[in-house]
Structures are given as C-alpha cells and as structure tokens.
C-alpha cells in the first residue's frame, strides 16, 4: 500500500476524482428530462420509461458486482480512466439515439459507468480526502453524484427548451468535460500498489466487514428507501410534469428532478452537525414526512407545494444517506473501502431498480398517482425498519458500555 502521498498530489487527486464523479453522473442524467420527448418520438409506453431506469440500474449493479474490487489490483487511476471512457461511449450512443433499443442500450452503458464510478472513483475520493473536517469524504461521496445528476438534467433541458442546438449538443459538452476529467486523473497520484489477483477479483462478492454488519439493517433500509424515490423521479419526472402538474415544459421536468437531487448536498453538509445515529434517524423521519406531503400535493395538482416537498425530501435523504455512509466508513480501514462502497451502492441501486422493474410489469394497471402512492408505502416500511434498527443498535451499544 502506498503510505506517503504528497499533499498537493492528494489535493489534485481529491479534486479530480470529485469532478469525475460529478461529470459521470451528469452524463447519466442528461436523458432524463428528455424522456417525455423520447416517449412521443420513439412511441414508448410508461412501461418502457420504467425499463430505461431498470436497464440503467442493472448496469450499475452488474458493474459493482463484477468490477468493484478491480481497482485494488490494477490501481485506482487506470480503472477511473476506463470509467470515464465508458461514460463517453454512453454519450456517443445518446448523441445518435433513434429507437427504443438504442435508448435502453445507452442507459445500460451509462449504468455501467455510474456503477464503476460508485466504487472506484468514490474509493479514490476517500483515499485522497483531507483528514479534516472528518465528514468531508462521506459528504462528497454522497453529494457529488446527485449534484451532477441535477447539472446534467438542467443542461439538457436548457438546450432543448431554448433551442441552442440539437439534442446531441449536451452530449458533446459532456464528452469534453469527461476528457478534462481524464487529464485530472492522469496527473493525480496512485493511492494503491497494483497486485496480483485481478481475475479472482471479478468473482461477484458482497463485502461487509464483520464489525459493522449490525449497522447494516438501519443503513441498508435507508439506502433502499431514498434511492427508490430517486428511481421513481428518474423514470417519471417528465411524466409527473405533463400528467399531474399540467405542463409540457422540459425545464419544469428538469426542475422536478433537480429539486430532489441538488438539495441532497445540503443534507450531506447538515449531517456533519450530527453524530451518524442522529443524522440517520432525523433524516429518514423527515424524508418520510416529505414523501407524505409530496403525494398529497400530487393528488391536488399543487405545483408549489410539490416542489417544496421535493426539496425537503432531497435535503432529508442527503442527511440520512450521508449519515448512513459515515456510520459504516468511520469504522473500517482503507483495504475494506472498495468492497464496502460497492456493497452500499449495490443495495442502493437495487432499491431503485427493483421497484421500477415491478412498475414496468404492472404499469398498465395503475395510473401515475397510484404508482406514487405505492412508492410512499415502501418509504413508510423503510422508515419503520430504520428507526427500529437504530433503536436496537443504540440499546446494544448501551449494554456494551
């Protein structure tokens, strides 16, 4: 293991990895506000929209299962550069998408890139993160993707709404940004010593160190609940805008998605003001209440209350998710980071993919509001599970003392 890294080199690595994580997720979100456009031009159905989310999340989970530990053997930088290259391929496909099959393939490729970013690039961030403040690593790991998702969605919406060019323009811009990220990564220091065993590392393995397994029920339920709502917004934000908020504006569709994602970073910052246990319990409770308000605002087609509820949901999920990551990361060493982070994101992406897969099969029997209610019931179950698990863990720690 490389023990001594130049301080400036670490800063470059931290900034480069953070920006790379941001841009990879920006590239993955660019198609989201345009899905209603694709719905019309490619003759898609609501089930097809759910499948775009499913193929994306399947790509994420597959890459996490197979490639999550490769960077321990090949090094962080080579795998990070490969991740950026795969993201470029996804942008190229979307730059020329002409049918539903290309749409699904493009989302799958973007999922592969996002899954790799969620393991390798987040681990590279953790390796290079400043030691103070202590919460910065978890906040960046949880916040950079969601801010990137908002940036990509808004960028695509602005170009579409104001006619700055064809839909391919946003993907050309993203390709240029991904190339810049590659330069930053190329000049950053390697943080691990390459070693043998890369083939065996491809065998799917979920790794959670024994000393933190008792924390997983609470953290895992939070990962599932918050990302399930993120998956709902990814698949249906443009449909919500058209059907329930009565507007076809692509900018409004992007705003719907961004209002959930961008405040996530605020929640991550707030989590640093609490210990991880309180961040989880306060965050998931506020998230539950926000979803209740959100569903009611959809029922009465109230746009402003809907946006307010979405913003509060974004803040509270950032608080809960970052607190959950901190509760796990703070108790492990560097060698366990890649495996743990991949496990965290496998749980998270599965929490987003499985509900969307169910919706894809059942979409014909339910309207959009009823689908939203179904997600609300899932969040209710998650809220109860998380609070109970946190209580059990707190009691366990008390008895140990």
Estimate the strand proportion: under 5%
**Strand runs, count:** 0
Give the C-level CATH assignment: Mainly Alpha
Shape: globular
N- to C-terminal separation? 35 Å
**Tally of discrete structural domains:** 1
Protein name: General substrate transporter
Membrane topology: Multi-pass membrane protein
Domain Major facilitator superfamily (MFS) profile: 13-397
Keywords: Cell membrane, Membrane, Transmembrane, Transmembrane helix
Report what the structure shows.
This protein is mostly helical and 401 residues long. The chain has a single domain, classed as MFS general substrate transporter like domains (Growth Hormone, Chain: A, Up-down Bundle), CATH 1.20.1250. The chain has helices at residues 7-29, 35-41, 46-67, 71-74, 76-95, 100-128, 136-162, 168-186, 198-201, 216-244, 250-261, 263-271, 276-299, 303-329, 337-362, 368-400. The longest helix is centred in the last third of the chain and has 33 residues, at 368-400. It is globular and about 50 Å long. The model has no long low-confidence stretch (mean pLDDT 84). It is found in: Cell membrane. The chain crosses the membrane at residues 50-67, 79-98, 104-126, 138-159, 165-187, 215-236, 248-270, 282-298, 304-326, 338-359, 371-392. GO terms for molecular function: transmembrane transporter activity. This is General substrate transporter.
């Amino acid at each position: 293991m490389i023990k001594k890294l130049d301080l400036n080199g670490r800063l470059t690595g931290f900034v480069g990895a953070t920006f790379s994580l941001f841009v990879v997720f920006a590239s993955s979100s660019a198609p989201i506000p345009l899905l209603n456009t694709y719905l019309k031009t490619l003759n898609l159905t609501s089930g097809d929209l759910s499948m775009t989310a499913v193929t994306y999340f399947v790509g994420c989970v597959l890459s996490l299962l197979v490639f999550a530990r490769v960077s321990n053997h090949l090094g962080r930088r080579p795998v990070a550069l490969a991740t950026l290259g795969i993201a470029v391929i996804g942008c190229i496909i979307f730059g020329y998408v002409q049918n539903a099959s290309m749409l699904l393939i493009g989302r799958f490729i973007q999922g592969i890139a996002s899954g790799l970013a969620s393991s390798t690039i987040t681990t590279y961030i953790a390796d290079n993160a400043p030691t103070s403040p202590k919460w910065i690593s978890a906040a960046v790991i949880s916040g950079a993707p969601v801010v990137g998702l908002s940036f990509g969605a808004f960028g695509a919406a602005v170009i579409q709404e104001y006619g700055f060019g064809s839909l391919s323009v946003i993907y050309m811009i993203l390709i240029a940004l991904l190339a810049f990220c590659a330069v930053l990564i190329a000049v950053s220091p390697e943080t691990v010593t390459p070693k043998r065993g890369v083939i065996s590392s491809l065998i799917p393995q979920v790794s959670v160190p024994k000393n933190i397994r008792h924390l997983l029920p609470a953290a895992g339920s939070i990962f599932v609940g918050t990302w399930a709502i993120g998956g709902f917004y990814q698949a249906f934000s443009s449909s919500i805008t058209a059907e329930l908020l009565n507007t076809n504006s692509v900018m409004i569709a992007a705003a719907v998605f961004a209002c959930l994602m961008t405040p996530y970073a605020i929640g991550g910052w707030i989590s640093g003001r609490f210990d991880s246990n309180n961040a989880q319990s306060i965050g998931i409770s506020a998230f539950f209440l926000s979803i209740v308000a959100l569903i009611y605002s959809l029922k009465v087609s109230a746009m402003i209350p809907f946006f307010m509820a979405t913003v509060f949901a974004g803040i509270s999920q950032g608080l809960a998710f970052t607190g959950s990551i901190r509760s796990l990361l703070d108790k492990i060493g560097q060698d366990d980071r890649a495996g743990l982070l991949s496990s965290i994101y496998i749980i998270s992406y599965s929490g987003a993919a499985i509900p969307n897969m169910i919706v894809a099969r059942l979409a014909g029997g339910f309207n959009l509001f009823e689908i939203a209610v179904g997600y609300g019931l899932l969040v209710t179950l998650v809220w109860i599970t998380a609070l109970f698990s946190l209580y059990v863990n707190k009691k366990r720690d008390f008895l140990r003392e």
